[in-house]
Amino acid sequence: MTIELSHFSAALLFAVCASVVFGITLKNDWKEMPHYGAYCFALFVGGVILAGWVMWLLKR
Amino acid sequence: MANVATSTPTTAVQYPTTPMSIAALVVGWLIPGAGHLIQKKIIRGMLLMAAIFTMFFVGLGMQGKVYAFNTGDLLDILGFFGDIGAGGLYFLTRMNDWGQGAIHRATADYGTKYIIVAGLLNVISAIDAYHIAIGKKK
């Protein structure tokens, strides 16, 4: 079986999985875990979008 | 008037290693999320298992490469240590000869990184299970 993902969908899936693990393992209080996971996800996706725009500017 | 410093003696909190903590570490490494499951942290264990299994098998599906033990290029050696973090998934993959990689595919490199990161996340997950078992974390 071969899975074909675009660059962006691969980055999104990576962000989801890594954020779940970071949220659970890096916080002690279970109430903080979803917030921290969402924060990590936002940073991952924000970083991807920012890096995309930087590469677009470098290409011009 | 001289200030008298009131100092309280600081005592380091001890977290003794128990058989359960060793079991949580080893089982958590061999089966992603299982270190939490054996401590009845069902939701956390299932989420960790889903995240790590997904990353690992999507990486394989993207034709990612699984590194064998090697003494060659430094990045290959580091790739092996990342991959072996996935524990049982790594051994399963090696036994079935999966993850040979396909360098002619652009997404295969993503797959390789997915597999390495799944292994590294599994190490974090197993250490977290250990911390729960010794009482350092709830």
Shape of chain A: flat
Estimated radius of gyration of chain A: 14 Å
Distance between the termini of chain A: 38 Å
Total domain count of chain A: 1
Could you tell me which chain pair has the largest interface and how many residues each side has? A-B, 18 and 24 residues
Distance between the termini of chain B: 46 Å
**Largest sheet entry of chain A:** none
Low-pLDDT regions of chain B = none
Q: What value does the average pLDDT of chain B take?
A: 89
How many helices of chain B? The count is 6
Q: Helix count of chain A? A: 2
Write down the Rg of chain B: 20 Å
What structural category characterises the helix and strand content of chain A? mainly alpha
Shape of chain B: elongated
Compute the number of structural domains of chain B.
1
Q: What sequence of helices (H) and strands (E) makes up the elements of chain B?
A: HHHHHH
Strand content of chain A: under 5%
Instruction: Pick out the low-confidence regions of chain A.
Output: none
**Overall SS class of chain B:** mainly alpha
Major sheet size, sense and barrel closure of chain B: none
Task: Tell me about this structure.
The complex is a heterodimer of chains A (60) and B (138). Chain A has helices at 7-25, 32-59. Chain A has 60 residues and is mainly α. The N and C termini of chain A lie far apart (38 Å). In chain A, helix 1 (7-25) packs antiparallel against helix 2 (32-59). Chain A has 2 helices and no strands. Chain B is mostly helical and 138 residues long. Chain B has 6 helices and no strands. At the A-B interface, helix 1 of A face helix 3 and helix 6 of B.
Give a brief rundown of this model.
Chain A is built from 2 helices and no strands. Chain A has 60 residues and is mostly helical.
